[in-house]
Amino acid sequence: MAITREVREISSDVYWVGVRDWDRKFFDKLVPLPEGTTYNAYLVQGEDKTALVDTVNPGFEKELEEKIRQVTDPEGLDYLIMNHAEPDHANGLSHMVSLAGDAEILATKKGKDMALSLYDLPEEKFHVVEGGDTLDLGDKILEFIEAPWLHWPETMFTYYREEGVLFPSDFFGAHVATPKLYADEFGEDVLKRAKDYFGEIMMPFRPRAKRALDKLEEYEVNTIAPSHGVIYRNPEKILEAHRSWTGAELDEKVLIPYVSMWGSTAEMVHVLRETIASEVDAVPFEVSSQNLNNLAGELVDSAGVVFGTPTVLAGPHPQIIYTATLAKKLNPPTKYFGIVESHGWAGGAVRELSKLVEGTSGELLGAVDVKGSPEEGDLERVIELGEEIAEKVK
Ligand code: FEO
User: DSSP letter string over 38-78?
Assistant: First the structure.
């Protein structure tokens, strides 16, 4: 018995044929996905030709096929557009090629090379496109927009001219599996999801993201249909958010990722928070109990970061090592750093964390290391660090 799965028309003759992955727990094994994710694929049906924009993650190929069948025979697809070669959007190409034997795969030159190295696809199926190239479906024109390094080198956008629908692949995405198809159905919280996602996926490439946003100024964009999360049919808010996240202005905010074993570090973080919060925003982030995807979102606009850790076996607590390493790799725009540390008999965490902070765009303002429980003089040093960083981020 055929299963009828949800297919939605999002614009004239444009269908969402994506899938929801409710159970995905991690992405790239880097950050948790507490709400799963979606792999959005779109069918654009023209008078003469039909194109599929992106495919789905391994394991969802049959679901994609079933959804396409509700609109048209997949065997008759003319074009398979690959905006991005990562497996969550391109792995399904092999299945689609096995169905649609005459379809061409449209991708950038780098996209073609990457797809051939990752998947078992016939080279002759590929047609390389460049920014500004168009595809005529009869009554619809699709235009390809160069947008490399979002977040792989080969990425591009596809733009449906007549209706102003942008298919930006991963850009503007959010990791959330939800029955709500549109951002306006999901509610304001969508911007928080999008910000966490931006921090995880796009923040390391902020200059590229800014360049792509500048390029989009030339286009009338009425709908943004990304590869993850919800669709924006009133895209001004999400565009404005991305302009802010890629801009030079940061929030007057200090993020405090910390972990405490016996309470000394937590006591210092408490005093630090009180000091900072009297001047600017202070956001403590207890790393053993909070999701690191939220940390990525907080890093997007925090002008200051203070790590708090005990020394464990001559170095920072391993959870703080991972957090600081991840934060460094995500290349946040943080301007000022600080460290508070407690140890039982010998320190070591400050030295190692200082090395991790080196090479970021930020300046390490100071470190407070404390033996045993913090005493009044120790907490005065914490207050001094808090006052200094609060003053700097203002
Ligand atoms: Fe959603 Fe970069 O793949």
Answer: EE--EEEE-SS-EEEE----TT-HHHHHHHHHTTS-GGG--
Strand pairing partners for 366?
Answer: 338
Q: Can you give the C-alpha Rg of the chain in angstroms?
A: 24
Residue of the CA atom closest to atom 2 of ligand 1: 86
Q: Say what the pLDDT of residue 30 is.
A: 83
- Ligand 1 centroid distance, CA of 171 (Å): 9
DSSP string, 321-371: HHHHHHHHHT-----EEEEEEEESS---HHHHHHHHHTTSSSEEEEEEEEE
Report whether pLDDT(7) > 90. Answer: yes
**In the chain, pLDDT over 90 holds for what percent of residues?**
94
Cis peptide before 84 (omega within 30 of 0): no
Alpha helices in 70-224 (DSSP H): 87-90, 93-99, 109-118, 183-186, 190-197, 206-216
CA–centroid distance, 93 to ligand 1, in Å, is 15
Residues sharing a CB contact under 8 Å with residue 128, sequence separation 6 or more, in sequence order = 107, 108, 109, 112
Over residues 237-264, the mean pLDDT reads 97
- Give domain 8-246's CATH superfamily: Ribonuclease Z/Hydroxyacylglutathione hydrolase-like (3.60.15.10)
Q: What is the pLDDT of residues 61-74, one digit of tens each?
A: 999 999 999 999 99
- Angle, in degrees to the nearest 10, between helices 264-277 and 376-393: 40
Q: What is the DSSP letter of 124?
A: G
Which H/E stretch holds residue 266?
helix 264-277
Ligand 1 mean position to 3 CA, how many Å?
28
Q: Specify the DSSP class assigned to residue 119.
A: S
Can you count the helices (H) and strands (E) in the chain?
13, 22
Options 3.40.50.360, 3.90.1170.10, 3.20.20.370, 3.30.360.10; CATH for 251-393 is: 3.40.50.360
Angle at 320 between CA 319 and CA 323, to 5 degrees: 90
Instruction: Check if 86 has its Cβ closer than 6 Å to any atom of ligand 1.
Output: yes
Nearest to 146 by CA among 189, 108, 175: 108
What pTM was estimated for this model as a whole? 0.95
